[in-house]
């Protein structure tokens, strides 16, 4: 009996003692792989009598109808809303979407891109913040350039430095600046920021815009006012507890995402700090949950589904060579009950 179809790419990688991404690069013809690793992979594939499985071949045969979407965390309402926009536009064009979740793991992101190349997806979309990391950008470029030269299309959501690709970008900096101005208008003068990892372009843009908005009002934000944590609900919860432990005097807390703001409001409530009576809280994104919180969350509303739809359209209309196209989508400050004029301290 012929058992070749039962040998997987994972088995080849294991026998060759390389990562799944490296095995995929070698077998897909990527040139930027060390010669010793290439020989190990090819030898393992020959000894195992490896051939691509029938399912992968079927996907490759229908490449014109397949789009790969790689996102950081599909459980994050931000990513889910953007993915909805991608799916809407894909459905309108009769395309099949393959969705991959990286769990915010950069190596996994590279592996998924490599696998999508192997399955000859006609377009690849990266959904999520870019990284301030030149090494990551070089590794991703190594994956995407041969794919692009072979006719594949690439588009990203968000600002990705050092990565050549068409992009749909939310106006993070301008939105955060406008939010700062609105909070100052409410009467706040002491602020704290709950930030995600400072190697993410989204975090840097929102933090920078907020600082700029405060500076125009004559208010300085110091390093002691910024509490860095993970880019999710638990990160907001932990950062708010750090703020409380530091006995920070902020009358208003800006969390760089609504999910972080949600975690912060929970921590403040547990500590007996009423929102907004004792302290105001603002977020960013306007995920569907933001208006349902008690109190409803002040935030910057972004057209999340439209971001996904625009990225999908860019991928479908992409051309080889030339400058990368950028479509910028602005946000709008939405003032709700979670922020109010600060009360005087006794």
From TrEMBL:
SUPFAM superfamilies: lambda repressor-like DNA-binding domains, Periplasmic binding protein-like I. InterPro entries: HTH_LacI, LacI/GalR-like_sensor, Lambda_DNA-bd_dom_sf, Peripla_BP_I. One of its GO terms (molecular function) is DNA-binding transcription factor activity. Residues 7-61 form the HTH lacI-type domain. Keywords: DNA-binding, Transcription, Transcription regulation. It comes from the Bacteria. This is LacI family transcriptional regulator. It comes from Amycolatopsis acidicola.
């Amino acid at each position: 009996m012929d058992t070749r179809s039962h040998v997987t790419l994972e088995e080849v990688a294991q026998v060759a003692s390389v990562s799944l991404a490296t095995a995929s690069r070698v077998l897909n013809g990527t040139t930027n792989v060390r010669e010793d690793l290439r020989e190990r992979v090819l030898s393992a594939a020959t000894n195992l009598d490896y051939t691509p499985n029938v399912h992968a071949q079927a996907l490759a045969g229908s490449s014109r109808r397949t789009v790969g979407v790689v996102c950081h965390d599909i459980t994050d309402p931000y990513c889910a809303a953007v993915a909805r926009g991608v799916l809407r536009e894909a459905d309108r064009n009769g395309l099949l979407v393959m969705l991959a979740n990286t769990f915010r793991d950069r190596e996994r992101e590279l592996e998924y891109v490599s696998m999508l190349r192997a399955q000859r997806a006609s377009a690849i979309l990266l959904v999520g913040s870019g990284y301030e990391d030149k090494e990551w950008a070089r590794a991703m470029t190594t994956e995407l350039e041969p794919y692009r030269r072979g006719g594949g299309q690439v588009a990203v959501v968000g600002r990705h430095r050092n990565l050549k690709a068409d992009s749909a970008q939310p106006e993070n900096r301008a939105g955060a600046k406008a939010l700062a101005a609105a909070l100052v208008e409410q009467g706040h003068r002491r602020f704290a920021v709950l930030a995600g990892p400072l190697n993410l372009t989204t975090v840097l843009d929102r933090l920078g815009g907020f600082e700029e908005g405060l500076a125009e009002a004559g208010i300085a934000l110091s390093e002691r006012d910024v509490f860095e944590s993970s880019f999710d609900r638990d990160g907001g919860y932990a950062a708010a507890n750090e703020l409380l432990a530091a006995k920070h005097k902020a009358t208003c807390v800006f969390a760089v995402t609504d999910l972080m703001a949600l975690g912060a409001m929970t921590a403040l409530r547990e500590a007996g700090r009423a929102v907004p009576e004792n302290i105001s809280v603002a977020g960013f994104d306007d995920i569907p949950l933001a208006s349902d919180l008690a109190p409803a969350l002040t935030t910057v509303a972004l057209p999340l589904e439209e971001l996904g739809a625009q990225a999908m359209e860019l991928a479908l209309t992409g051309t080889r060579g030339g400058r990368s196209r950028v479509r910028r989508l602005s946000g709008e400050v939405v003032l709700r009950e979670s922020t109010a004029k600060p009360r005087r301290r006794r």
